[in-house]
Amino acid sequence: MLYRWGNPSSYGRGGDAEQRTFAQHDVRWIPPGLPGAGHLLVFSNNVPGPEAPHSEVLEIAPEIDDAGRYVLTGADPFGPADPTWSYVAPDQASFHSPFISGAHRLPDGHTLITSGAQGRFFEVTPEGEIVWEYWSRTSGDVRMPDGSLPHPVEQFPYAVFRATKILPDHPALQGRELMPLDPQPSIVAPPPASE
After folding, report:
1. pLDDT at position 33, please?
2. Does pLDDT of 105 surpass 60?
3. By the 8 A CB rule, do 18 and 8 touch?
4. In a domain, 99, yes or no
5. Residue 195, pLDDT score
């Protein structure tokens, strides 16, 4: 399957002025039964802006024909022209993850967003209101198979790839007592910065 949206200049159907996604990550379909089912959610990491680079979460309703195929006509880029929904922080610079990250739709129409570089998880309403957020304070000396660090630890010691919200009525939680850990796990300090 090939569906390209957000940077038509990369496939010869537009210029830089039409670009909407920048270092996008974690595109996923919204599952059946959820608000926006069949649409795509994508985390756009490094959106340039007048204040500073920032991130956006975009919901895109792909244009399809009666047979369920994506529409691409003439020399036009893939549609739609604009996202169905998007989240950008009111203070754009306060929401910027230059790598990793993701988002997924929840049954109540809210969207869970992982701002991965900071280890920040937050849930927003369709109107963009943050209803809760959590900042990870767990880090560690995680290494790639070649021994290198997976990300710039000095700048992003609490980076998290992505989070998934598991609702209390999920079958895997049935018959289990859900209580906070006591005591809470220790905070693991990141490794010292290299000299």
Report:
1. 97
2. yes
3. yes
4. yes
5. 46
Q: Provide the domain limits for residue 116.
A: 8-173
The token pair that represents 31 in the structure block: 């599952």
Residue 76 contacts by C-beta under 8 Å, 6 or more apart in sequence? 13
What total of structural domains would you count in the chain? 1
Q: Tell me, what amino acid is at 30? A: I
Average pLDDT in the 99-117 region? 95
64: which strand partners? 70
Q: Is residue 155 situated within a structural domain?
A: yes
Q: Supply the pTM of this predicted model.
A: 0.84
Q: Is 77:14 a contact under the CB 8 Å cutoff?
A: yes
On whether residue 150 sits in a domain, the answer given is: yes
Distances (CA, A) of 88 to 31, 43, 78, 82, 94: 23, 11, 23, 14, 9
Q: Which residues of 127-142 are buried (b: 16+ CB within 10 A; e: fewer)?
A: eeeeeeeeebeebeee
Domain membership of residue 178 (yes or no) is no
CA dist 40 and 122 (Å) reads 19
Cα–Cα distance list, 158 to 68, 94, 155 (Å): 42, 16, 9
